[in-house]
Amino acid sequence: MTQQIPIDPDSVDDAPAGPDGTHALRSDLAYQRHAIVNVAYLGSPGAGDRGWVLVDAGIMGSRAAIEAAAASRFGQGARPAAIVLTHGHFDHVGVLEDLAEAWDAPVWAHPLERPYLDGSAAYPAPDPGVGGGLVARLSPLFPTSPVDVGARLHLLPEDGSVPPLPGWRWLHTPGHSPGHVSLWRAADRTLIAGDAFVATAQESVYAVATQAPEMHGPPRYLTVDWDAAGRSVAALAQLEPELALTGHGRPLRGPGLRRALHDLARDFASVAVPARGRYVEAPVRAGDPAATRAP
């Protein structure tokens, strides 16, 4: 079993949920947890129609909660300017098709995620052999069919800008998936990390239920290129973020966040990489035929 990196309790953001069910992190950034995964709402409260952006799209069954939070936070009937995806795994696109259609919203993602978002290919199969808990063992049961938002899909530009999010940059942080991206705002050193690293032991049912704060690499059962994942964590550590919202676990702040992230980057091979596993022995890299499967 891999090790864990403890997190200073003072670095965990435990802000209570507001009336809309979201937790405010910045004046224009809030998040909401949907069972096992977080989604982010970017935009000032009351921003109105097309005045905000949703980052990731939850799990199956989360549509009503996302729509209710959006209406409460931004105004009744307020549609997002866009939905931006960190990647296309099942727990980040669970209600993407429904929301994109209902809101007539464009969807932005990295070009390497396109096959998984236009219905043409599925991700490599999950690996239950990585250990760490029941979630990992159950991973072969997770949905693997790709979603299809091809008619609304826009590819993030090579210059690193995020067209619907002025002031933000996208950073290619592959390893967990070929086209995984993290979002970075340098002005206040805010990072939306997706699953490049996470703040709880996502392989464990107990950790997922309690949201016990620990610094971890990406969820192991779906990570296909561990060398790339390690480089991605190292690149994010170099940013010295002040606030990090990950796809799983509670948000982290301040020196404790930075210390734990640097520890993870330094010890990634021993802390994050499984002792054994399908993609430890045979990584799948962007462009490999094994990177996609028939839908």
Q: Overview of this structure, please?
A:
The chain has 295 residues and is of the alpha/beta class. It has a single domain (5-291), classed as Metallo-beta-lactamase, Chain A (4-Layer Sandwich). Helices cover 23% and strands 18% of the residues. The protein contains nine helices and 14 strands. The strands form three sheets. It has a seven-stranded mixed beta sheet, with helices on one face. A five-stranded mixed beta sheet has the order 9-10-11-13-14, with helices on one face. Strand 6, helix 2 and strand 7 form a beta-alpha-beta unit. Helix 6 runs antiparallel to helix 7 (254-266). It starts with a strand and ends in a 14-residue tail after the last helix. The mean pLDDT is 93. InterPro entries: Metallo-B-lactamas, NDM-1-like, RibonucZ/Hydroxyglut_hydro. Residues 36-248 form the Metallo-beta-lactamase domain.
What's this entry about, in short?
Helix content is 23%, strand content 18%. The protein has 295 residues and is an alpha/beta fold. Helix 6 runs antiparallel to helix 7.
